[in-house]
Each structure stands twice: as C-alpha cells, then as structure tokens.
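Project channel, design review

CF: Before we commit to the Pipistrellus nathusii constructs, I'd like one complete example in the thread so the newer folks can see what an input/output pair looks like. Taking Folylpolyglutamate synthase.
RD: sounds good, go ahead.
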Amino acid sequence: MSRAHSRLRASLRLAAAFPRGVTTGVAGAREFSARPAPQEPGMEYQDAVRTLNTLQTNASYLEQVKRQRGDPQAQLEAMKLFLARSGLQVEDLDQLNIIHVTGTKGKGSTCAFTERILRSYGLKTGFFSSPHLVQVRERIRINGQPISPEHFTKYFWRLYHRLEETKDSSSCVSMPAYFRFLTLMAFHVFLQEKVDLAVMEVGIGGAYDCTNIVRKPVVCGVSSLGIDHTSLLGDTIEKIAWQKGGIFKRGVPAFTVPQPDGPLAVLRERAEQISCPLYLCPSLDALEDGGPPLTLGLEGEHQRSNAALALQLARCWLQRKDRHDIGELRVSRPSLLCQLPLAPVFQPTAPMRHGLRDTEWPGRTQMLCRGPLTWYLDGAHTCSSVQACVRWFRQALQRRKSGPEVRVLLFNSTGDRDPAALLKLLQPCQFDYAVFCPNLTEVSSVGNADQQNFTVTLDQVLLRCLEHQQHWSRLQEAAAGPDVWGAPSPGAGGLAALLLAPRLPHPHGASSLVFSCISHALQWISQGRDPVLQTPSSPRDLLTHPVASSGASVLREAAAVHVLVTGSLHLVGGVLKLLDPSLSQ
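CF: and here is what came back for Folylpolyglutamate synthase:
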C-alpha cells in the first residue's frame, strides 16, 4: 500500500472517531453515516425511502456474495416466489403489455424514446428504469412522470407489509433486496394504475435479471453491446451478449442495432434456439430517406442508433396490438450481417416524430447553460459510451466558442470498471483541471435518504478517487515526459492537503484535485458564478493548496467555463440535485 493510501486510511479513522457534525482536519469531512435503524412504519416519503434503503446489500455482504455466488437460475426462481408472496402470479404480468429492453449502453435512452413515442399516441404508459438520479421514485413513472411521493409511500408500505405478513420463518431471507423490491413495486403500480403498456429496462444483464420473470412481453430490444459488469456477466463481449439474449422469448419479436460480428452471432444463436424472431434495425438515415429529417430530444450522434431501435419497438408494439397509423412501409433490403433479417423500413408517423423530438432523459448528453458556466452531463461509464460522450462534448464546444475558456472534468467511476481506460479516452478533450470526488452529494447523507448508499464504505470511495487521480497523473506524465512532473507532499497542509490531494500544474496538461463530496467540488468549480447553484461559504480547507487557490482565480476570471461531468450516472445525479433543486421537490 502506498504512503498516500496509508495516510488517507489514517485520516478516515480519525474522522470516524468524531461525533456527527464535528469537523476534523480532513477537508470538510464529517463522520460517514452508519446504517440507520429501520423506521417505524409511517406515511412519510423519507421514512419509506429509509426503510427501502435497509434492503441495500451492505458492502461486506456484497463482497461475500461475489465470492460465493449461487445458482443464478435459483435467484430468478426466488424472484417468482417474492412475486407470489406479494399477491401476484407471473401470468398477471401479461396484462402489462411489456416492452423489455436490455443492452450495455443506450438502453435507458432507448426506453425513454420508446415510451415518449407511444405516449404521443395517447396511450397511458408505465416506465421502469434504473438507477435514479435524484429521487428513487424516478425509477417508476406513469406517463413520463415519476410517481408522486404520496403514491410512492402508499405503494411502498402496501408491498412491504404484504411481504412481512407472508414471510416464512424457515426462510433466511424475508425481504427481497433493493432492486428486486423496486421491480416488484413497479409491477404493482403499473397494474393498479391500469397502464396500457409498460416499458421495462433490464437492470444488469438479462438472462438472470429480476425483470426477466416476465414470460410474455409484446416485444424485446437489445441496444448497443459493450464490456461492463464483467464480474457478473463475463469478461468478453460474446459472454455478455449471451446474457443479454436471455430476455428473448419464443415467438416474441426482438430487435437489435448493428453489433460487432461476434456478439451479433451470439444473439442470433440465442434467438434461433427458442424460435424468437430477431431483426436488425435499419439506420435512422434509412427511415429519413425521402422525408424530412427527424429531430431528437437527446443530443449526440450515438442517440440516432437508440432512436432507430425505439422506432422499431414502438411500431412493432402498435402492430401487435392492432393499432393503425404505424407508418407506411418502404422497399426493404436484405441484411448482410450474419444473415439477420432487416426490420421494416417505414415512414415515421407524426406521433413518432413528435415523440422523438419531445423525449427528455436527464443526465444523458444534457447541457445546462448558467451564465459563464456550461455544464455537460453524461452518465457514460463504459469505454464505448465515453467515446460517444467525448464526441458529443467536443462537437458542442465547437458550437460555443466564446473567447478565453477553461475546461474542467468532474469524474468518478464505480464497480469493476477500468477507470484508467476511461480517463485515457477523455484526454483529447484537453481539460485545464481534472476534479475527482465520490458520488456523495454531501459528506454526510443522513438528511437525504434518496442519496444513501450502503453498498460501499466512505473509506472505499475516497481511496478510489485517489486512485483515479493517480491514473490521470500517470496519463499526463506519459503524454509530456516524467522529467517535469512531480507529486507534492502533503506538507504543512496535513490531512486537509491529502484529502484535497492536488497534483502540481503541468505545462501541457490538467492540474487535478480530489474533493470529499460533490458539493465541495461544485463550490470550487463554480466560484459563485452559477446563478442557481446555492453555495454556502466554503470550508477554508478547500483553498489551502496553491493549485486550488490559483485555480479558483482562473475560474473566476474566465470568459467561459465548460464542465464535463461523466463516468457515473450516480455522480451525474448528485450534480443535478445541486444544480436543479426542483428535482428534489
């Protein structure tokens, strides 16, 4: 273990020794909240969310599960038992007319496009997605809107009490884990609210994801595939494709976008094994041919692939439900990719065009313009999605030339992803400052149940941020040569300098900083120049190091400050919570 890591661990132990609310020598750090005792059942939204949070798998248990992972098929059967205990049978889910979507990147955007298109037809829609950005109720939407705090509270306690009443004393698990519970809750909400259809986004993988207890979806979709969640899904894109193809059902049409040959062949084989008709989506260009161009509500060239998939999913759903006005067919072309048949080439209808144009999906290629600051928010967290994010960011910068500018990266990465690979892809953006912080809005999340996360410890997330900074420093050093690079000693700054952990400015690269929470990072980046961001007086420790102090002056004087927030949807959610307070209401 490095000396820096040893010092950081020592500082964390020191922080934990102080009562909550008492500051230590660490920059703005307070004691990390421990798991709260379950609240007495009440009817308050925050009480419901706190109780839901007790179903999160704590960090130590999560590691144990990874080492002793059981039969994944048995986990799926367990989900069916929880469904039965909640008062539903798998057959009941057939009423929801489900569109089931998986993929590595773009599956959430595809779902958002699909839901908005079908809502444009006057249909009542349900939409289940993950993760949430600011409030957990965002995961369950009716007609595009998160269910209200009152409805969330009502449905939560109804399901929670039902599962409590039906628990078996012989079973060691009386409650489903966090994501399973929310999936069950979504099924109940959609049935009770009598939606015309439900768009269900897979959590992780497909074959053994708890959403896959659905036996008769109307149509399935697979968005672009890549490497992610390798500890769960496999370490090759072909293994991951096998997991994703697990949502295919006999006789149920499925659509996918162009994929590399290997994973596309796996998807085809999975479909053939169970007699699932699988189609390859033509490009959006093919659907636009001969008509006006389509306008997308989501920015980025990569969204065109997601929109093309969404159009096929929506059209297929309408067709299978005997709806009219589904678009005039054009002459179709055979596919040359693995002999997969090409999906219909058709003229998008007015409701389809309006749906694509009006789609909103926060935290994905989202821009917020605030005076001299422009925030670019994208939850990209795989190599391919970060590449798409970089293309979007650089194209957006070309459109916004405004004199002397400063570019800032705000980054975090979680799970089993490779942060060095992601950071290397971000280097062409030529950032002046790279800022790293954990996915904690504040150092303590005690007052906000929606932001609590028990799957990791404070020690783990801060050490990971320090590792991210070290990866970035090595990339900078490799680009410009080691003879002009050096890492500062904490020196007189002590623990404060360690947790604020800057690297010295590099003549050809970005200076870097680590902050203990998102709030502190945004305070330093914005320097009071964002008219919406509420910035209480910053802890003095935030400017104790020369890099932080000199950088603050640069940020205050710049004509334009462009901030890219990426690497984690949870990070983007924490930033949005602070930049747009209305999302917390």
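RD: helpful, thanks. Confidence is low (pLDDT under 50) at residues 7-42, 482-508.
CF: The longest strand covers residues 405-411.
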